[in-house]
Q: What sequence folds into this?
């Protein structure tokens, strides 16, 4: 067994340290220059084509959209490499490895573009969807049937016995180490869930991935953003450490820079799988009007995997070793139940619950009242609610962060820092609002097309989306302030203002505007904008009064 292990390790070191890295990097450089840096030139187009729906299929055919193909491929990219892989890279190669992961993602994205475009060019019609990938363009493009067969066998063995084993082993080990779950039970549950999904074919895989992947990615990014925001003063030092560790002369003399370079390249390639030949199999199944569109989608997948998710992991790891972060050990122990603490939680929590209920139930009432205007306005209203709810996650996450950081400084009797966090949270929210507004106005037609392709409905949805954007602007000015006030334990005012502005003002005003003016159904959204704007104005005034007149 030891001889076999040494033999496999020797081959692995040769391939993984020299052959594969040289070949993949060589291809990445070649494709980058040959395509004239397509990964940078057409970044805006990547975002736009992400919203393309599947082309209309003939009867009996089932195709998946660009976004579903993006979700499935991202599901294959995001995994152990983004967590344990980044941790290994930082542990072995130091923080400088993160910099080289960024570089390999920027270059390797050109390989992802080429391989996925080729997959679209040489795909074939299957029983229910398109099929294709490297094996197909080896066979039909290069005319090398034997190479296509060999690749198909190797990638099946690799995913069946290597990649899936690594992922499932990591999950089982994490569940056992964190919660004490039996690895056999966790493995059995994973097997059953996987079988239920993959036996449904590419359609079920695409549907499940299009739901799970955005939640997984956005949730992880939100978590990392909260940690970074909580340690915002350490961020410049972290970035400086990453860049300086990649080029520092004393590290170069000691060989550390070489370790950082090799680990960054290895983990970057393992994480985003650019040039590996796995993602093109998914890219081929998408139904698009031009092959390049799917190439751009998969290029965006590489950026999302490495530049976004891997960077989040790296920041969390590096910040963990910073002094301000070491003091927080969330699961170090449990304290005894205390009625005093329970009463304090209820005193703060119940008003927050009522305030949130007043706002969320308002949308339900507006949806019911909108029903009398017909299905066209019901559909447009639902589209506007869906989009505003999605955008709302930004100020809401900032609000939660503000509650934590302001509450911490209030508990420490540090008014200056609490006020600094107030300012940071408020301006971060406004900055993101500006970006959201620019994005919405730029892609207004594309956003509306995500919900329908009916021309009459599209016009109405666009009008409702404008109201939803203004509503979101008021949210961006009011929601973070709610979080700040909660940090100061000033929660009752939020409840009173929410009840008055939403139920005493918004609902009656909306009914009057919708039935007795020319606004019609748009009157409800106009009343929502007015009431939320008034809500934000009052809460900002309350925050100013509270912080300027009271000491902590």
A:
């Amino acid at each position: 067994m030891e001889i076999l292990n040494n033999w496999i390790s020797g081959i692995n070191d040769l391939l993984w340290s020299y052959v594969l890295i040289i070949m993949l990097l060589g291809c990445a450089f070649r494709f980058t220059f040959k395509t004239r840096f397509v990964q940078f030139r057409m970044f805006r187009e990547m975002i736009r084509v992400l919203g393309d729906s599947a082309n209309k299929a003939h009867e009996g055919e089932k195709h998946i959209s660009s976004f579903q193909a993006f979700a499935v491929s991202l599901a294959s990219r995001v995994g152990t490499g983004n967590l344990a892989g980044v941790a290994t890279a930082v542990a072995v190669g130091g923080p400088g490895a993160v910099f080289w992961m960024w570089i390999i993602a920027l270059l390797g994205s050109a390989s992802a573009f080429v391989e996925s475009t080729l997959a679209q060019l040489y795909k074939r019609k299957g029983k229910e969807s398109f099929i294709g990938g490297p094996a197909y363009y080896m066979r039909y493009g290069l005319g090398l049937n034997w190479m296509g067969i060999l690749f198909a066998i190797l990638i099946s063995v690799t995913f069946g016995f290597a990649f899936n084993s690594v992922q499932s082993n990591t999950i089982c080990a994490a569940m056992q180490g964190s919660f004490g779950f039996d690895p056999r039970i966790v493995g059995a549950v994973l097997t059953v869930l996987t079988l239920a999904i993959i036996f449904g074919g590419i359609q079920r895989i695409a549907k499940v991935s299009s739901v799970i992947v955005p939640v997984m990615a956005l949730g992880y990014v939100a978590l990392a953003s909260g940690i970074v925001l909580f340690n915002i003063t350490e961020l410049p030092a972290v970035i400086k450490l990453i860049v300086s560790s990649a080029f520092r002369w004393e590290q170069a003399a000691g060989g550390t820079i070489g370790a950082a370079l090799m680990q960054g390249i290895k983990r970057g390639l393992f994480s985003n799988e650019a040039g590996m030949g796995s993602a093109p199999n998914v890219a081929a199944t998408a139904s698009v009007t031009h092959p390049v569109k799917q190439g751009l989608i998969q290029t965006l997948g590489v950026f999302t995997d490495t530049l976004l998710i891997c960077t989040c992991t790296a920041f969390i790891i590096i910040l963990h070793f910073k002094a301000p972060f070491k003091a927080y050990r969330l699961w170090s122990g449990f304290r005894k139940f205390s009625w005093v603490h329970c009463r304090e939680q209820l005193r703060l929590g119940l008003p927050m619950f009522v305030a949130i209920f007043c706002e969320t139930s308002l949308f339900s009432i507006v949806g019911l009242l909108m029903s009398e205007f017909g299905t066209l306005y019901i559909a447009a209203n639902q589209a506007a609610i869906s989009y505003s709810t999605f955008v709302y996650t930004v100020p809401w996450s900032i609000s939660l962060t503000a509650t934590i950081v302001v509450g911490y400084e209030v508990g420490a009797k540090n008014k200056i820092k609490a006020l600094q966090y107030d300012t940071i949270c408020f301006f971060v929210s406004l900055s993101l609002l500006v970006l959201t507004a620019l994005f919405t106005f730029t892609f207004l037609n594309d956003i509306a097309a995500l919900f329908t392709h009916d021309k009459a409905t599209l016009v109405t949805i666009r009008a409702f989306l404008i109201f939803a954007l203004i509503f979101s602007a008021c949210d961006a000015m009011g929601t973070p302030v709610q979080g700040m006030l909660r940090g100061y334990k000033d929660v009752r005012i939020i409840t009173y203002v929410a009840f008055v502005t939403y139920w005493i003002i918004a609902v009656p005003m909306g009914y009057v505007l919708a039935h007795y003016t020319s606004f019609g159904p748009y009157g409800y959204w106009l009343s929502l904008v007015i009431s939320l704007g008034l809500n934000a104005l009052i809460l900002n005034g309350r925050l100013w009064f509270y912080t300027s007149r009271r000491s902590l």
Notes: Strands lie at 124-125, 130-131.
